[in-house]
């Protein structure tokens, strides 16, 4: 069976680790089927269904692209690529750091451009743990 890592999120219970991966589900209030009381990531392991409540702001969807190190890319990841430029007749590389947004058309364009002629992209962090990577860039 192929591993499905469609979403990831940070667990509310810190004992569960840094990130959990799987399907995104929600639980509703017993008094109203329209009131969400929590978001959960669920996955199967050893034929058992596991479910962990996650912080909603940390949930990111896999975009079905990988970086040059074969790391899956998720919404809110920060990735790095270099743009080759010429300055005073010398070849230089300008560094770009981009946050993966939900605009899939722009993301595919940037990813394919970087993969095609700029040495590929590399996931270097995410906005939940590494927002400082975007400072002064």
Structural features, described:
The structure is a single chain. It is built from one helix and nine strands, in the order ββββββββαβ. The chain is mainly beta. The mean pLDDT is 78. Helices cover 10% and strands 47% of the residues. The strands form two sheets. A six-stranded antiparallel beta sheet has the order 4-3-2-1-5-6, with no helix packed on it. Strands 8-7-9 form a three-stranded antiparallel beta sheet, with no helix packed on it. It folds into two domains: 7-58, no CATH class; 63-134, no CATH class. It has one helix spanning 104-117; strands at residues 7-9, 20-28, 36-45, 48-54, 60-66, 72-74, 77-87, 90-99, 122-126.
Characteristic key phrases:
137 residues, 3-stranded antiparallel sheet, mainly beta
Q: Can you describe this structure in just a few lines?
A:
With 137 residues, the protein is mainly beta.
User: What is the count of DSSP helices, taking H or I runs of 4+ residues?
Assistant: 1
Helix/strand structural class: mainly beta
Give the strand order, joined by hyphens, for the main sheet.
4-3-2-1-5-6
Rg = 18 Å
- The sequence of SSEs as H and E is EEEEEEEEHE
**In this structure, how is the largest beta sheet organized?**
6 strands, antiparallel
Outline, from the CA principal axes?
elongated
Mean pLDDT, as a whole number?
78
Task: Note the gap between the termini.
Answer: 42 Å
Number of strands: 9
The low-pLDDT segments are none
Measured by DSSP, the beta-strand proportion falls in over 45%
Share in helix: 10-25%
The oligomeric state of the chains shown is: single chain
What is the domain total for the residues? Answer: 2
